[in-house]
Each structure stands twice: as structure tokens, then as C-alpha cells.
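Case study 2.
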Amino acid sequence: MMTAAAAFAVDDYVPGPDSKPQPGVPKGEVIKLEFKGSKIFPGTVRDYWIYVPAQYSPEKPACVHVNQDGIQNQAPVVFDNLIAKKEMPVTIGVFVMHGRVPARDGNAALDRFNRSVEYDGLGDAYARFLLEELLPEVEKQKTSDGRAIRLSKSGNDRCIAGSSSGAIAAFTAAWERPEAFSRVFSTIGTYVDQRGGNDYPVMIRKNEPKALRVFLQDGSNDANGTGGNWFLANQEMLSAFEFAGYEVNHVWGDGGHNGKHATAIFPDAMRWLWKDWPKPVTKGVNSRAPVMEVLGADSEWQLVSEGHGFTEGPAVNAKGEVFFTDIPNSHIHKVALDGKVSVFAEDTGEANGLMFGPDGRLFACASGKKQIVAYDEAGKGSVIASDIDSNDLCVAQNGNLYVTDPPHKQVWLITPQGEKRVVDTNDKNGIAFPNGVRLTPDQSLLLVADMRGQFVWSYHIEADGSLSAKQPYHHLRLPDGVMESGADGMTLDAKGRLYVTTHAGLQFCDQAGRVNGIIAKPQRKWLANAVFGGANFDELFVCSSDKIFKRKTTVKGVRSADAPIKPEKPRL
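Prediction:
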């Protein structure tokens, strides 16, 4: 039986006039240099090139185009033509090769090639290399006629590009630092499992959208290997961008894993990526991501209070006023409904977790004194339990307190009558570091965050307050290269969604234990805890190192001090 012959790509893409030198167009200068001495990628050396357009003046910092794998797509010629026609701004190009660690004897050993490590690797290492090492080095250079090189620091003035692994490197840099790179040109991008890049479509759908403009190119005859199918992966990326509401454009062709198609479309891609400049690139619209159902279109983080040692334990009273601790300074602060911040209590024994009880008292983990203290409305405290290495607590509507004890890997129960007993002790296969503790809105389940693990654990609460049916339940996402979630504090909304502060951001899960969305951190520091507050309980407050932030939401929080409510059944 005969089979049809395989169809091969025409792959005959031809660059247009914008990719060729044109008469009368000023020609920019290209400078070749070598960069050594990286601390982020130790021992590496690499070549890089700087393109400086004829129109550039050091009086105004120039826009920036960074490209991996050196000069591609006839970029200097295209930039000459488009800048002359004012179809893109005056832009300095930085074209950089991946690093390599030279062998001691090149005749007997290979260099260590860093391309996959730097380009395919997730996380912020490569973005930091560009921002902290390479671009500052570029600004130390001068053109042949003595012009100093000055680069804009605004992400809106920066485009980053690459092909294959260089493309995922470009996107990763923008994903990690959108404030530094707002425009991305990705060709035949390696969004497959080389070093975890196949996770990006899911991450794009779950994370809060970023202010990025992205252009994708690929061909139907791209590579198909052990890591995945490049063309299918790029289509998954496009689908994810569209789902999450990003400003995205794409061109698919029938080419293979080469730069022919990308070179042909490069001028048009640059026009689209730089369109309307200097108007800022913004977050997209019409997002279907669940995170935007929680936040709404115009929600942004707002600073509430700063200048603290380390903030923790946010709790909300029946009015919607938020209280938080400054652990090193042993203070409890109050955020009034008008936004004013005042000291509620001093000398709190390095108070950590806080929670209001049904009687209106504020319960605190006085970690420095190994006590549980209850404060009245005047800020006067009384000890209700001692000899507990407490971290966080929650209070049920019936007055039962549950307290986490990380050093001993325990959970305590303190009854309204003052009885205290351990209700869970974790062996080597249990919770490594019990931290945040909360009740579900119907108060039938206790949830405990494992800061050094990947899960939030769920327990069924028996009639006498004891715990049963223990299970690792809420499955949290881990950033690349991190072996623990950093799950710290938690809060819940009226629909039963659980919000957990983690290394990856503020992750929220449905009642089935699945991460539905990840809200971005307000700053690149530890995210310690969260609570819903404000007069309508629709403002999400978070503790982030030395500061408190809040943002408006479309959902409302619940307090365990109030009567239990039964949320709607989750969709399975």
C-alpha cells in the first residue's frame, strides 16, 4: 500500500525593502565588545554588539532593544530604515551571545556552554544579568565619535527579542521584570520542556496579567522533540495570552526551525510592538482569567503603611478595621476605616498571628513570651494560655482557638474554658512547618499551611474540637528552583476560596484545592499574611515585609468570629 509523500514547507520567505540598505538613510554604528566578570553566571565570557543609530543624542536616554544570540533579523539595517521613517523611536540595540565557561585546554576539553542554562531556565537570573550587569556595562561605552551611551530605564521604552531558546529567554525576562521590558518579539520560541518552559501557558492563565505586548512567530514545520512540539507549544502560548487578555499578535507560517520567516516579518513586528509609543503598554482587556474575576479591571495595590520592622498577623474586627503586628517592635497597629494608622498596643511580646473572637476581643500569639493574649477594645491584654511556641491562630464562632506551633510541628486547641491540648502532631511525613491556620466559611474544616512544603493541609473538625481526616489538600504552585511554597498566612472569601501568601504571590484556590489564580506581590519581598477588610470587607490587605498594602476586590471576605455560612458547591 502506498502512502502520500510528506508535505514539506516552502520556506522561501524573502525579506522586503525595509530589511535592505536604502539610499539616503543614515546608517547607525555597530560596536563589538566582550563581557566578562559576571557574578550571576560566574566564569562566563560572551561577545555582544551595540547598535547606535545616527539620530541618537546622549542628551536623551534612548529606547532599548535587547536580542539574544547576537545580531539577528538584519536588525541594524531595519532599525536604520524604521527610525528614519519615524516608525519606531530612536533605539539602541544590544545584541548579546549566551555565556560560555572556557575550558583550560580547548584542544582537550569542551567549553561549558551556558545557552540552555541562561535561556531555557525560568526565574529571574537572566533578567538580573541583563539589568544588573550587561546594560550597566553598555552604558560605560562610547561611540566612535565620542557620544556617551545612555539607556532608558523604563520598561515602556524597552523591547526584548530572541529566537528558539533566545525567545523564551526574552519572554522570561519580561515575565519576571515587566517594569523593565514591556515589549517582546518571540520567534520559533522554545516553550517546551527543556527546563520547564512548558509551564508558561498555565502560568499565564493563572497569574495576574502583566503590562506586556507580545508578538509570536512560528512555523508548522518547527521542531518536534523530546521536550515537546514547538509549533503546538507556541499555539498554546497564543491561546493563553488571549485567554488572559494580553495584547498579543502572531504570524504562523509553514517554515522550520530557522530564522527565515522571522527575518521577513521583523520590520512589521517592530512597527506593531512600537505602535503608539510613547503611550504606555498596559494590561490587556477582556481577560477570562479567574484572577481578574476576583480583582476587577482597575484594582491596583495601594500603600497603607510603611516604616515597620516586619509586619504580620492582619485581623479584621466587625467594623472592617484592620489590625496588624510589627513583630520586632512588639507593636499592634490599627488601620481605621478612614485609612489612618495608629498604635493599638505596645510591649506585645513580639506578637505574631492575630484574630478577633466572637466576643470582640483580639487574640494574639505573643511568640516572644510563649503566650496567647487576648486584648480588649482599649488595648489591655490578658494571658489566656502559656508555654506554647505559637505562630498563628484562628478563632471559631464557638470560641475554640486553634494555634500552630512550628518548632514542635503541632496544632493546639484552646477551648473557651481555658483547656489546651495538642490536636495534631506531625511526624516526618506530615507538615514540615505548620504556619497559617484558618477555618472554612462553614467552620467544618481546619486548614493549615505548610511553609516548607507544597500543600495546605485540611482537617475535619469533630464535635469536641479534635481533628480527623487529615489530608494534604490545596496544591500550591512552586516557583522554578524553589523546593518549598513559602505558604505563610491565609484568608478566605464568602465563596470559600482560600488565599495563601507564598513565594509565587498570593495564590487562591477553589474548595476542591486547585489554584485558580495568583495575585502579584505588591513588592519583591516576603509576603507574610492577608485579610479582607474595609467597611464592606472587599479590600484585600497584605503584609509585605516592612509595609502594608491593600487593593479593591469584587469579592468579600469572611470572619470566623461570625456565624458560619455554607458556600456554593465547587465546580468539579
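The CA atoms of residues 434 and 450 lie 5 Å apart.
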